[in-house]
Amino acid sequence: MGWRCVGLRWRESGPVLVWRRGGAGRESPLAYGRELGFRAVGARECAGARGNVCPVGARVAGRSTGGKCPECARLDRAHSVAADTVADDPRTYRVYLAWFGPGMVKVGITAEERGPARLLEQGAVAFSWLGRGPLMAARRTEELLRTALGVPDRIPYAEKRAVRSALPSRAERAAEIERMHARAVALEEWPRSLERTGFAAVDHAAAFALDGLAPATGVVVELVDGGCVAGRLVAAAGPDLHLATADGGLVVFDTRLLSGWELAGVKVTEAGPAVTVPVRDTRGGDVQDGLF
């Protein structure tokens, strides 16, 4: 049995690919400017739930970004803070405002001990903390702010990707969050147990290598047995890798599609394999909003 990819994680040093084989695990750091190439082998298996291997080794569709069978997905969600299924978590939580592009601000919560990891995982270009306190107080504040500020708790990745190559300046990004922060902390309905946090913008553009990023020419939609993805890593944001390919394109690869695949390395050369898996063109040639 070979190593199967679990997906991408963000560490203080940057993005890494996480692997698992049986009970063993390892990580592969990713570096901007370096060549990255792999080939999918065999069939995609369920990634399991909460660090445990899927007991039946279920097969998963290639286009699934969840990478789990229905039973493991149900088990994972049953212990999810995001799904409101955990009410007695004793940890301190933080409420945040995350910025992904002009007019694209969302509110969310994360465990304080995780620091900015949740924001990196979502591909937030910039963010500011809003408050800290018990889980249920943080959850109530999140709902209050969504309604009062008219902001969502989720922004589709397709929308995030569409603006990464044309971002306003760092100062403009911070100014938009600061205006929203001021409106948020001025609300009187905050739970008493949640402490308001002063404004301090944190910017991830450098960590993601977004400065000077060119528009993407395509987005990988699935992996297939024997299919290759290869190119030079120029940027990463959230689960997305931006790869400059041998044919001159810039392809976005959502690493959530990696989970459950056994991968074999391929040598990246100018004449070698680029991307031989299904890719959706993002240069305006799609019809019916990219359905075909």
How would you describe this structure in keywords?
292 residues; alpha+beta; 7-stranded mixed beta sheet; 5-stranded antiparallel beta sheet; 6 helices; 15 strands; globular
Describe the 3D structure.
Helices cover 20% and strands 30% of the residues. The protein is of the alpha+beta class and 292 residues long. The chain has a seven-stranded mixed β-sheet. Strands 5, 6, 7, 8 and 9 form a five-stranded antiparallel β-sheet that branches. The chain has a three-stranded antiparallel β-sheet with strand order 1-2-3. The radius of gyration is 20 Å and the shape is globular. The two termini are 36 Å apart.
In short:
The protein has 292 residues and is an alpha+beta fold. The chain is built from six helices and 15 strands.
Low-confidence stretches: 285-292
Spatial separation of the terminal alpha carbons: 36 Å
What is the share of helical residues? 10-25%
What is the overall shape?
A: globular
> Got a strand count?
15
The assigned structural class equals alpha+beta
- Write down the secondary-structure element order: EEEEHEEHEHHHEEHEEEEEE
Radius of gyration: 20 Å
Helical segment tally? 6
The strand order across the widest sheet is: 14-4-11-12-13-10-15
Mean pLDDT over the full residue set: 89
Largest sheet: 7 strands, mixed
- Strand-residue fraction? 25-35%
Helix and strand arrangement:
Elements: E1 4-11, E2 14-21, E3 24-29, E4 35-41, H1 70-78, E5 93-101, E6 104-111, H2 117-122, E7 126-133, H3 135-149, H4 157-163, H5 170-185, E8 195-196, E9 202-203, H6 205-208, E10 218-220, E11 228-237, E12 240-244, E13 250-254, E14 262-265, E15 279-281
Parallel strand pairs: 10-13
Antiparallel strand pairs: 1-2, 2-3, 4-11, 4-14, 5-6, 5-7, 7-8, 7-9, 10-15, 11-12, 12-13
